[in-house]
Amino acid sequence: MNIAGTSPVDDPSYRYKMPRVFGKVEGRGNGIKTVVPNISELALSLHRDAGEVNKFFGCELGAQTTYSEVTDRAVVNGSHADAALQGMVHKYIEAFVLCPQCGLPETHYKIKAGCIFHKCAACGAKEMVDMEHKLCTYILAQHKKDKEKAKKDKKKKDKTSKDKDKDKDKEPKDDDEAKAKKKKKKDKKAKKAKKEKSADATNQDGEDELADDIDNLSIASEVGVDDAGAIELAVKGVQDYIKNNPTATATQVAEVVVNQQMSSAVKSHDKIHILIRATITPSFYREAQIAKYASYIEKITLDNPIMCRHLIGAAEFICVDRPKNFPVVLKQLYDEGCLEEEVILEWAFDGRSVYTSEAVGEDMRSALRGEAEPFITWLQDEDDSSGSASD
Q1: DSSP result, 304-334
Q2: Which of 43, 287, 313, 324 is deepest in the core (most CB within 10 A)?
């Protein structure tokens, strides 16, 4: 059937579909209960968690509910007819699935400072849900659990990776391999000394000259000048497409960016660099460019933490000659839902990494980090207050 809120959608060609919910009554007397066998299929069609949908039944019916991920079994205490359950589904969709602006079921949650927002992938709107509903407590608690689990998984993954590296270092090396490693280390050291010498000369010539030099560098300068020219051409191609197709959707622009990246034979993560350089200019604040192109950015990053780290790297690059713009860019990307606090805080405390372009020198990277310090502090305070709200 069509996915619909409290107002039915009778269009037979409507592409958003969901299965009809049905229940199976078990037990008798005080132990009577209704099992919902197709809760997972229903939740999947709505892009929500099965436990959340089941919890909504309990909130609306005033009944105790349980859901097991292991057995995929959803239980609502009491005897409830299919029609009653279906009515609850429509109320849930109206309140927690449909976009308040365009009415399409293409939303996902963005949680900030203990508040839950709808973020629509179709129209880009961001609206707060009804925070007075009892289900919000469950959603916030679940969000906190997911964050803690993600942190634990990351720590476990990092520890495993370090252990593997240690074991690899302990493996015996033959003479040829040892000589090759020694030569590679020596070449790397010489290259680093050359870079430091070049950076010192640039600093002495003044900040204005540094900004002029940066314009001629590539975000992928480590692979050569040819890639710099390829990326410039890709950026120009995306700019021309957006200019000539003002009504293009985020999906269409994302396809053009991917095509430009592939035809330019640059790295996959350069997609986000190409898009940012093609859309965000020094006048980004006056023209609300980040809000305008946020849906394009999300189509490229797809909430992938690695791509989001490269997004910060792209923001660093475009702000090298205007460091004071950097925290504003970072804050607007956060406000538009393009960056999560976990990714930003990880960037803030990791130091220089592979995500930072070589065109952004160590001194410049430190300067950008310093400019962002007030925002980072605010973000940490907000994260703490969000945790308290979830409790």
Answers
A1: -HHHHHHHHHHHHHHTTT-GGGHHHHHHHHH
A2: 313
Q: What is the pTM (predicted TM-score) of this model?
A: 0.48
Alpha carbons 263 and 255: distance in angstroms, whole number: 12
CA distance linking residue 315 with residue 309, whole number of Å? 10
Give dist(CA 2, CA 71) in Å, integer: 28
DSSP-derived secondary structure for 207-247: HHHHHHHHTT--TTGGG-HHHHHHHHHHHHHHHHHHHH-TT
Is residue 304 packed enough to be buried (19+ CB in 10 Å), middle (13-18) or exposed (0-12)? middle
First to last CA, the chain: 38
For residue range 222-231, what is the model confidence (pLDDT) as tens digits?
333 346 778 8
Q: In what order do the strands lie in the sheet with 126-128?
A: 107-112, 115-120, 126-128
Residue pair 38/50 in contact by the 8 Å Cβ criterion: no
Would the pLDDT of 203 be above 70?
Answer: no
Max Cα separation, the chain? 86
Domains, the chain, with CATH or none: 24-143 (3.30.30.170), 213-376 (1.25.40.180)
Contacts of 24 (CB under 8 A, 6+ apart): 34, 35, 36, 37
